[in-house]
């Protein structure tokens, strides 16, 4: 990419820009910085031309934001709040803690205490070091066919972007080009003529390790609907992934590997700790299989014309493998790759 595009991008007034996902340690950031330095030297491009945004989307990275920014100081474009992978990372790292069992995914919003702590700490850390803090991606996507669904999505995204702008973020990500004008207008309302909010140092933010690791959702519950959503989304996403699509619009939301990881990880976590739904019924592997039997009929009806029956069967089996097994696979894509080789 650098060899073929860097000079053309620079000459056009842009540059070679990257984002770095899944980092867990500042030494990974150091490695990327070394890669950037080497690439620039080999191509005769001025050092510091490359710019990279790091996604803070793992629990370990939340404790090393200062160090990550320092390691990439010559090339940093800031930090981004990768909310969906971050929630997955919380479940993954705290999966054996019975006090860290999360409720329905829909209840784990950006306004719950531990998610507020993580994002506000990111803004404060970035601004103290003169870097940009970038808001995360809302999963809601607009609809050009359903006005009512579109209105709901726009309202949800507007609320999300208003929260980010008011918290001090300097920009944000969106999941669809139709959302760019909305996000731009929200940030313009808060920033006015300013290019960023780095001057907002957020001295009011005081976040400690306990605030980040205490994953409690006040009033949170696990519901039958939440279980069904997780099973449905995980199987649909896996069917999409096995068909060659890494992101899929499912029920008005943009689902990617991160949200599918949350869905299957929650089920594993609920079974592991003997969680119960709000009606007092235990969540067991047998119960999940019955739910999967039920949702498969709808999935087959919805996707039967676009996804091969054999792929749907593979998706169902893979879902059970990564959700109901005794061991917790680090990533669902690892066994998934074995099916497409």
Task: Describe, in plain words, how this protein is organized in 3D.
The protein is α/β, with parallel strands linked by helices and 341 residues long. The protein folds into 2 domains: 2-213, Malate synthase, domain 3 (TIM Barrel); 224-338, Malate synthase, domain III (Malate Synthase G, Chain: A, Domain 4, Up-down Bundle), CATH 1.20.1220.12. Helices cover 53% and strands 9% of the residues. The protein is built from 14 helices and 7 strands. It has helices spanning 2-11, 26-43, 59-62, 65-71, 83-93, 113-128, 147-167, 180-191, 209-213, 224-242, 257-272, 285-303, 309-324, 333-338; strands at residues 17-20, 51-56, 76-81, 133-137, 171-173, 247-250, 253-256. The strands form 2 sheets. Strands 1-2-3-4-5 form a 5-stranded parallel sheet. Strand 6 and strand 7 (253-256) form a beta hairpin. Helix 5 runs parallel beside helix 11 (257-272), helix 10 packs across helix 13 and helix 12 runs antiparallel to helix 13. It starts with a helix and ends with a helix. The relative contact order is 0.10. The mean pLDDT is 95.
Strand order of the largest sheet: 1-2-3-4-5
Which architecture of the largest domain does the CATH hierarchy give at level 2? Alpha-Beta Barrel
**How many independent structural domains?**
2
Q: How much β-strand is present in the residues?
A: 5-15%
Q: Which runs of at least 5 residues are low in confidence (pLDDT < 50)? A: none
Based on CA atoms alone, the radius of gyration comes out at 21 Å
What general form does the structure show?
A: globular
- Main sheet overview: 5 strands, parallel
So how many helices?
Answer: 14
The CATH H-level homologous superfamily of the largest domain: Malate synthase, domain 3
**Main structural class:** alpha/beta
Tally the beta strands. Answer: 7
Encode the helix/strand succession as letters.
Answer: HEHEHHEHHEHEHHHEEHHHH
Kindly report the average pLDDT value.
95
- Find the CATH topology of the largest domain: TIM Barrel
